[in-house]
Amino acid sequence: MKDINLVISYQNNDIILKSMAQEFKDKTLKFYGINVPKIVTVIPANLPSIEVKEDRLDFIFLLEDDSLLHMEFQTTNKKADIKRFLQYDTRLYTMVFPH
């Protein structure tokens, strides 16, 4: 048996949940008891930022009624998280409605 150095990403939960939500779109929301119009597509959630780092939203779904649903899976409960989510949504809004 070979000795393999296994490196697991710190963000492993996010990576798995993002992959599952993209693969199972509508089933994911139903699992969490979220009843919304049918998802048309999953929108890439990598929003560029002027900051030194890049913030990545967990999920942005385009729904059948042309609305967007932004979801975050969070393992902490800090006030700073809410501020970060607001910044995500502000940048998303300005991307969708540039003027």
Coarse shape: globular
* N to C succession of SSEs: HEEEH
Strand order across the largest sheet: 1-2-3
The description of the largest β-sheet is: 3 strands, antiparallel
Protein name: PD-(D/E)XK nuclease family transposase
Write structural notes for this entry:
With 99 residues, this protein is an alpha+beta fold. It has one domain. The protein is built from 2 helices and 3 strands. It has a 3-stranded antiparallel beta sheet with strand order 1-2-3, covered by helices on one side. The longest helix is centred in the first third of the chain and has 20 residues, at 12-31. It starts with 11 loop residues before the first helix and ends with a helix. 7% of the residues are buried.
List the helices and strands and how they pair.
Elements: H1 12-31, E1 39-43, E2 59-63, E3 68-71, H2 79-96
Antiparallel strand pairs: 1-2, 2-3
Which key phrases capture this entry?
99 residues; alpha+beta; three-stranded antiparallel sheet
In short:
By secondary structure, the chain is an alpha+beta fold. Helices cover 38% and strands 14% of the residues.
